[in-house]
Amino acid sequence: MKDKKIMAVPFGCFLGVIAVCLVGIIIGSFCDFNINEALANKTDIGAFFATYGSYFSYCLYPAAGMCLFKGLKKKGHQYDGLAKVLLVVAYFMAVYYSNSYNGSKVRELFGYTAGESSPFMSILSWGFWVVLYAWVPIVCYFLFDDTEADKLIAVGASILIAGIVADNVNLWLKQVGSRPRYKYLLTLDDPASEFRNWWEMRPNLAGSNDNFKSWPSGNMTIASMMFSLPMLADVCKKKSMKKNLICFALACVFVAIYGYNRIHMTNHFLTDVCFGTLITYIIYSVVSSAFLKTKKS
């Protein structure tokens, strides 16, 4: 256990993240509403980060695609077609998710109005995301070390699969919980009277109504992808545990800022944020451990 690593960092780092999330859940279970009353306050900079902060997490998808591309290319020419397809799929995932969650903001920048503007303007907004992620696979191509092809494939596959699983688990749990968001409660005459703790679930009440999709935080699912950053550092040409730990520290800071932003912008409660992080982190840890264990054998 002493030398055990989870997502390319010591096991103690894994336990630390789990412990912080559990402490946050315990505190939030008693103080969720009061914490939001004290911290919630929409700002322009908060809105900007809420819209574009996910970009950094989604960069991991094309990076994972390049892991698969270089790993499969190293395996032999018979995998060339598969390598190219997976790289395109990974790139598409970053563009698709960014456009799905934040596309409306970008379309506003281009002056697009649904039903009125030319369809070309909508295509242009897609092009914005395509260009924005273009540098990632190029840089990763030169950074990644292909001497361990199996490791590259394991890391790339685990990031892609864990990302898809975490996103869908989160969507399912939102329906299970159907918890009112704080920003919705603020529109009511007596917000506290309609507040519900995370365990007071009303399955399928939410439906397509986003106002009842507070628990768990989907944006924290996105932010927590950053915990896979040390795995990418671990397949670079000049790798070291020090660099892995620096990446882990950066991920912790990013996730903490993102979590604060979700509360600050009235979108989530503390327990929403902690559950979103905890669930995603566990999924990434289990999937990556399974793939890397297979790689070793």
Beta-strand content: under 5%
The helix-strand sequence is EEHHHHHHHHHHHHHH
The largest β sheet comes out as: 2 strands, antiparallel
Instruction: Please give the count of helices.
Output: 14
The helix fraction, in percent, is over 70%
Distance from N terminus to C terminus (CA atoms, Å) equals: 19 Å
Gross geometry: globular
What does this molecule look like?
With 297 residues, the chain is an all-alpha fold. The protein has one domain. It is 71% helix and 1% strand. The chain is built from 14 helices and 2 strands; from the N terminus they run ββαααααααααααααα. It has a two-stranded antiparallel sheet with strand order 1-2. β1 and β2 form a beta hairpin. α4 packs antiparallel against α8 (149-177). The mean pLDDT is 93.
Main traits of this protein?
297 residues, mainly alpha, two-stranded antiparallel sheet, 2 strands, globular
Produce a short descriptive summary.
By secondary structure, the protein is an all-alpha fold. It is built from 14 helices and two strands; from the N terminus they run ββαααααααααααααα.
Chain-wise SSE layout:
Blueprint: E1 5-6, E2 9-10, H1 11-39, H2 44-52, H3 54-58, H4 60-75, H5 80-109, H6 119-132, H7 135-143, H8 149-177, H9 182-185, H10 191-194, H11 218-223, H12 229-233, H13 241-264, H14 270-296
Antiparallel strand pairs: 1-2
